[in-house]
Specification:
The complex is a heterodimer.
Chain A: E1 4-7, E2 10-13, E3 19-25, E4 31-37, E5 44-51, E6 54-57, E7 64-66, E8 76-78, E9 87-94, E10 104-106, E11 110-114
Parallel strand pairs in A: 2-11
Antiparallel strand pairs in A: 1-3, 3-8, 4-5, 4-9, 5-6, 7-8, 9-10, 9-11
Chain B: E1 4-5, E2 10-14, E3 19-25, E4 32-38, E5 44-51, E6 56-59, E7 62-67, E8 72-77, E9 86-93, E10 101-102, E11 106-111
The chains are: A mainly beta, B mainly beta.
């Protein structure tokens, strides 16, 4: 089945460590997004990419990095510079092709906890 | 900047009652509006997508309306069931390439 796969589902990190969250989609979508969700708050955009080898900062990019070397993959690295990384991270993708509905699809999320 | 508001933040209804969820946005120039459902600890599931040229969309017991001039969308869920308990979020896209702006969601509990 087509969809978005995020891994790992749960991740624990010690302070000072970098961690990478994986996001893979087989929907052939051009655009991919990373969001952060904190309790009681709406989704906040970290980074997005509309095409391979190109990406833009979202509203809260500090302390995060991404790459887009393949259309189907958009990994997110949470660096030690991110002061409060404990959160639920959501990856999404969107089809921008002609005739597409513009519907955004999400993965199941990755929960990161800093010990 | 587009702001999206969902009121109330939480709602509890008895089983069988119709649910009415509200979404307000400040800029009426939108490309589309999407409603999502989120279960605890899970990702978002798309429920309905309304294009800017449409007034409503329906899927089973769900109906979403859009009134751009007043900056409002309403999600109706008919004959609610305990399985409808979840958080419902709306998101607005400003143009075909624009980033979605999300509301904070309405947490719904349907009691048996």
């Amino acid at each position: 089945d087509g969809g978005i796969t995020q891994s790992p589902k749960y991740l624990f990190r010690k302070e000072g460590q970098n961690v990478t969250l994986s996001c893979e989609q087989n929907l052939n979508h051009d655009a991919m997004y990373w969001y952060r969700q904190d309790p009681g708050q709406g989704l906040r955009l970290i980074y997005y990419s509309q095409i391979v080898n190109d990406f833009q900062k979202g509203d809260i990019a500090e302390g995060y990095s991404v790459s887009r070397e393949k259309k189907e993959s958009f990994p997110l690295t949470v660096t030690s510079a991110q002061k409060n990384p404990t959160a639920f991270y959501l990856c999404a993708s969107l089809d921008f092709s002609a005739g597409a509905t513009g519907e955004l699809f999400f993965g199941e999320g990755s929960r990161l906890t800093v010990l | 900047k587009q702001e999206v508001t969902q009121i109330p933040a939480a709602l509890s209804v008895p089983e069988g009652e119709n649910l009415v969820l509200n979404c307000s946005f400040t800029d009426s120039a939108i490309y589309n509006l999407q409603w999502f459902r989120q279960d605890p600890g899970k990702g978002l599931t798309s429920l309905l997508l309304i294009q800017s040229s449409q007034r409503e969309q329906t899927s089973g017991r769900l109906n979403a309306s859009l009134d751009k001039s007043s900056g409002r969308s309403t999600l109706y869920i008919a004959a609610s069931q305990p399985g409808d308990s979840a958080t419902y979020l709306c998101a607005v896209r400003p143009d075909s390439w624009g980033k979605l702006q999300f509301g904070a969601g309405t947490q719904v509990v349907v009691t048996p």
